[in-house]
Design a protein that fits this description.
The chain has 56 residues and is of the alpha+beta class. It has 2 helices and 4 strands. The strands form 2 sheets. Strands 1-4 form a two-stranded antiparallel ribbon. A two-stranded antiparallel sheet has the order 2-3. Strand 2 and strand 3 form a beta hairpin. The longest helix has 5 residues. The protein starts with a strand and ends with a strand. The mean pLDDT is 97.
Length: 56
């Protein structure tokens, strides 16, 4: 299952975008979104998120 981002707590800082090794996360409308088909479920984004908005 791909990473999921809580849009209510995401602040659009881009930390997860910079951390994702496969570029599966992008900022859209100042919020992070995950391309489910590209996510490799590595968890790098989870630790990078300062607001704990990402889960696997």
């Amino acid at each position: 299952m791909a990473a999921t981002i809580n849009q209510d707590t995401c602040v659009g800082c881009g930390a997860c975008v910079d951390t994702c090794p496969v570029s599966a996360i992008k900022l859209e409308n100042d919020k992070a979104t995950v391309a489910e088909g590209e996510c490799i479920e590595c968890g790098a984004c989870v630790g990078a998120c300062p607001t704990e908005a990402i889960s696997l």
